[in-house]
Amino acid sequence: MHAKRNSAAVYVQLILFVALGLTGMSNPSHATNVATYKIKVSQNLRTLDVSVTPSPGYTLSRLRPLSRNAWSRLNKNSLRGLAIRRSGLVVATEADSYHYSVDIGGGFNRRSFGNFLAGNKTRMTDSREWFWVPDDWQGNETISVEFDIPDGLSVSAPWEPISNNTEAPDASGHFLARPVMLYRRSAVLFGRLQLTQLELPGGMLNVAVATKNPEITNRYVAWTKRIADAAVQEFGHLPATSTQVVVMPTWSAGGSVPWGEVRRGNGSGVVLVPNTRATMTELIEDWTFYHEFAHLFHPFLGSKGRWIAEGFASYYQNILRARAGVITADYAWERMVAGFARGEEQTRKGRTVVNGGLMRTYWTGAVMALELDIELRKRRGMTLGNVLGEFSACCLPASRTWRPRRFMQKLDEISDTKLFTKTYREYSSAMDFPDYSDLLHTLDIRNSAGSLAYGKSALRDSIMHDSRS
Ligand SMILES: [Zn+2]
Fold this sequence. Notes:
Blueprint: H1 2-20, E1 32-41, E2 47-54, E3 62-64, H2 69-73, E4 74-80, E5 82-85, E6 88-91, E7 98-103, H3 110-113, E8 122-125, E9 133-134, E10 141-148, E11 154-156, E12 160-161, E13 174-177, E14 188-191, E15 194-200, E16 203-209, H4 214-235, E17 242-247, E18 259-263, E19 268-273, H5 280-285, H6 288-295, H7 306-323, H8 329-345, H9 358-380, H10 384-395, H11 404-415, H12 419-429, H13 437-442, E20 445-448, E21 451-454, H14 458-463
Parallel strand pairs: 1-10, 16-17, 17-19
Antiparallel strand pairs: 1-2, 2-7, 3-6, 3-9, 4-7, 5-6, 8-14, 10-13, 11-14, 12-13, 15-16, 18-19, 20-21
Helix pairs in contact: 4-6, 6-7, 7-8, 7-9, 8-9, 9-12, 10-11, 11-12
The chain binds zinc ion.
């Protein structure tokens, strides 16, 4: 599995170099480490002291910030060997290593997490606010990041963990960072975390649960495993060789899983906020984690591609739940068709999907996913899951945003069709919600005002595998 993925990555890298002149695909065998960052986390989790040592043969000239907030977090009296310029921190005096310190106390992600944060025992940060990177960091170059954290506390980061401890492989706080989506949000956590690694086809899931209670941790790790297994069945393997899963339990909000989101900064990652009162059954029946995990199989597509991203994830949130055996195939179809109906109802006509209303954004792409899945199965004997699985093996985590049309062209290449670009053109230029009645007819589903009746259809059964039947 690993060997196959590596050769696919090299092959695609060559194609991209030749055809497009793109750089930035990761290929570990050619990686050069440009610097080592030693980061000391203070006892009260309020300060990071960072020392940057350039590797022999690499000349550091400037460290650049990854967000505007990085400037206000910087302790300007802490600089050693560096001087402040408008463009960043420039090397002022040649030295073996350079130092800066950052205030990470309070205020992080308040807007999206509010009272979800698990108190002062765990601090969730966005590395864009404190990770100043070499000016010219790019391509296959890596940075070795080593944390020195107070006793009893741990670090979770989206970077690939480097281990010298086989018992708790990522407990050493030592990572290898790559220049991947540096301007997107990431999650780096310090505190009372329980770290678990799950090895599945294609890579490793690095799970961090913000609690030290082993019973709670076991439940969330089992939950993660259930979702990842369903995705691996559908897509063939994990979305990346290293994927970070952060679970931040909350006591305060309603619903089984009040919040979930993908974080693409620095790699492949997902943050889930489950309610501590949710039982295992409630957790695995909830759609949120399946939806977020499915997002990891496509690249960041920008605001113009959001409808494709949300559409694919909304399509798979139902398919993966049926796959996992937690809902029946019939119920999964009901939820999908109910979503289509919401998209249709809330469509602002005379506009394209990009600004045609929120539910239309989510469900137009799901109708497109269903059409693509049907066509691929009929014409090519393959599935949409096969194509996305192959895409993730070659091209994820991506080092940059993919334009929607380029993504569709790549999926055409993988499936050896013109299906994706053709379908994308139709859906993206339509001024109304797509008519999905023919698709339901093809699947022998009769829809009378949302109440579904099913004929016999091998095609339908093949899409919505219900592992219980
Ligand atoms: Zn989504």
